[in-house]
Amino acid sequence: MSENGIPPVSGTGPLSRTAPSPDKAPEPSGVDLARVALRAAKEQARARGAAAHEKRQARRGGGLRSGARADGRDPLPLGAAINRLITERGWETPAAVGGVMGRWPQIVGEDLAKHCVPLRYDEDPDERVLTVQCDSTAWATQLRLLAPRLVARLNEDLGQGTVRLIKVLGPGGPARRFGPLRAPGSTGPGDTYG
User: Fold this and answer.
1) 169 has which bridge partners?
2) Could you point out which of 35, 46, 47, 115 has its C-alpha 20 to 30 Å from the C-alpha of 9?
């Protein structure tokens, strides 16, 4: 015993003042052992709680109920649901081009829109062609002259490179009917339409 009544400290216990040997890892002290035991107990309790929660969910019907927080099963406004669907399916470009077809008169002007109608859009990355049909060859020629400016305008609205070319079709002509009043050598009314 020392002169103040406390036994001297020696050995390798937690109160030892000697340095641990470098080849041995230090043994956990009382506080460290308590932390390890607490961590293990928390993990076991969490596992028991998760198992009990799964059991309750199975009894209730497999977790088909919604809670207080938002999740993927909650109802969405129609616009948000459609936007989510468009994004998930990768339909951004076709939807944007469809919007252009709906706004065709505002984009090209009322006069041109009365005589030229967009038919289809080829979204193949190599093509990206907007096909437009006109009701006369004069309007088809006018649209061919305006095509570069129109492509620039469409790419402003839709994003650069969305439309590379506008394919202009002339009038289709009336349906071909073959009957007794046809002139010999004629191919029908399609002769006069370019």
Assistant:
1) 133
2) 35
